[in-house]
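pipeline/complex-builder :: batch 7 item 3
reading input block
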Amino acid sequence: MGEAATKSNPTEDRLATLSMPSNGWADDARKAAVSRVREMGLPGRRDEYWKFTRPDTLVQADAPQAALFHSDEAPLFDEMDRLKIVFVDGVFDAEQSDDLTLAGVRIDRLADSADIHWASDLYGTLEGNGHYVPRPLAALNTAYATDGVLIHVTGKAEKPINFIYLHENETSDAILHHVVKLDAGAELTLLETGPAAARFNKCMEVDVANTATFHHVRAQGRDHERRAATHIFARLGTESVFKTFTLTVNGRLTRNECVVELTGDDAVAHVAGACVGDGDFHHDDTVFVTHDALRCESRQVFKKVLRNGAVGVFQGKILVKEGAQKTDGYQISQSLLLDDDSQFLAKPELEIYADDVACSHGSTSGAIDEEALFYLRSRGVPADIATDLLTLAFLAEAVEEIEDEVLRDALVERLQGWLERHRG
Amino acid sequence: MLNIKDLHVQLEEEEKQILKGVDLTVEAGKVHAIMGPNGSGKSTLSYVLSGRDGYEVTGGEATLDGEDLLDMEPEERAAAGLFLAFQYPVEIPGVGNMTFLRTAVNAQRKARGEEELSAADFLKTIRERAKALKIDADMLKRPVNVGFSGGEKKRNEILQMAMLEPKMCILDETDSGLDVDAMKLVAEGVNALRNEGRGFLVITHYQRLLDHIKPDVVHIMADGKIVKTGGPELALEVENNGYADILAEVA
C-alpha cells in the first residue's frame, strides 16, 4: 500500500514481521483483512478507542517477555466431562487433546482444513462487519492467524468443548482464530481456560442461527505476566441465545472486546465479566452491542476488584438501530477499589434511534464497605478473610450470569482459592 | 470479667468528648443493664469495647479477664470472648448467612488454637440453635441480614451469639424495633445463654426488655458517665418517673 515510508510506520513495521499462512479457502479473507489493517492502521496512543489502554505492547514487533507461572492446582473444570482441545503457546497439541469427534458437532482445525470449507462464508466476515469502531488487532488476527478451531454445531452438542491454552514459553506470540457456527436449534457450551502465551491475539467469530443457544465461559488463568487482546464477534438470529462470561485474575495487560449484533427478533445476549487485579495489572473490557431487531434483550454486567495500583477499564456501548422497537438493554459496570492507588475508568454509552425501548446503564466505583467489614471482624473473622468474603460478594452479581450451576460453582471455588493465595 | 476503669473517649474526627470517665465491672454470671437518655454515650461504649473505628481513647482502660481489650483488633476481641449484638445489624449482600457463621466460628476456634468444627457438626449445631429462635432454613441460606425484618435481624444476632458462645455479651438496644412477641423470643434466646461463666451488658432505653431479661445490676448513664447504680428497682424508677429525677438528684 502506498509509497515507501520515509519514517517508520508502526503498522508496516508490525506487518513486516508476520508471514501469512495459506490455507486455500481462507486466503481471500486473509488478504482482505490485511487491507483493513492498513486502512485502519494499528492502534496508537492517540486513538479515541484506546484512550484508557496503551496498545504499544500489543502492537510492537516482538512479544514482551512474560515469566512463567507454575501452578500446583488441578486444571479448571478437570472433573467435568468435556472435549479438550489443547494449545501450547498457540500451537495445537494433539497429544494432550481429545479426539476431535463429538456427537452433534463437526470440528476442524484452521491449519489443516480442506480446501472447500463451510467456514469460508464466515471466516473474517463477522470481524469485517464489526468495525463501527476500528478493531485493527482483530483484522490483523484474521490475516495472520496460524491456527484455531472451526466448530460447526448441527444439533445439541453432547458435551462442552474446552479450549485449554497453556503458556510454556516466555516470549511466545500466539495468534489464534476460531469460528463457531450454530445451526438452527443447535446448542453448545464452550469453555476457554488458561493464559495462552506471553502475548495472545485471539479472535472468535460466533454465528448463532435462529433458536440456537451458545454459552461461553472463560477463565484467563492466574498469576501470569501475559498480555492479551481478544475479540469475540457474535451474530444472533431470531430467538437465539448468546451468553458469555470471563474471569480474569492475571495478566499485565488484557483487552477483551466483545461485539454482538442482534439481527433476529427476540434474541438474548448476555456479556459478563469479573476480574481481580493486583499490582501491575491493566484490564480492559470493551463491549459493543447492536440491536437491529424487535424485542431483543441484552445485558452487560462487569465487576472489577482492584488493588495495589491495578487499573480497570470498561467501555460499553448499546446501539439501538432505527426500528429495533421493544429493545431491553441493560449495562452495569462496577469496581471495588481496595486502595487509593487503584483506578477504574469507565465509558458507558447509549445510542438509540428507536422510540419504544428500555435501556439503562450504570457505573460505580467504590471502596470496601467499612460497616460490613467491621461487622464481620466483630464476629471474629480476620480482616483479610473478611475482605475476601466481601470481594466475592461484590463479584457475585457478575458470576451469577453463568447459567450452569456446576460451571459457576467450579469458578467460584477456584476464585476463592485464588483470593486466599493472594493473601499476605 | 469485664473491667472498665475511668474510660475517656472522644470522636476521632472532631474533638468531642463522649465518654468522660466510665467505671464499670461486670462479673461472670451476672447481667448488668445500662439505661440512660439519648446521647449519654451508651452506644459509644459498646462500639469502643468492640473496636469500631472512629473513636479515640484518651484515658482509662478496659479489660476482659485481665486482657487489655483496647489494644486488640476487633477480631481478636471476638476471639477473646467479647460479643456485641448490634443495634443496627449490617446487611451484607452476596455473603450467605451460613457461610458467614461458619467462617466466624472457625476463625475464632483457630485463633484460640482449637480444632475447627466439621461441616457436619456445624450444621447439626446451627439447625438446633436456629430452631429455638424460629429461624428457618431459608433465613440461614439468604445473604446476611438482607431483606430480613427488624425482628429477624435481631434473632439473627442472638443466633450468632449462640453459635459463637462468647464469655461477655453486650446487647446494644436489642429491643429497638421489636414488637412484643419478637422481644420475648429474643429474650428467651438470651436467657437460654445465661450461665455462671458468662457476663451480659444490656443497653436499653426501656424497662420492658428488662422484664424479660432480669438484670442483677442496673446503671444509669448520663453525659458520658455512670451516674447511678442500683438493683432492678432502678429500672422501674426510670420507667415511672423518667430520667429527670435521677439526673437532678446526682447533679
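note: The radius of gyration of chain B is 18 Å.
queue -> next item
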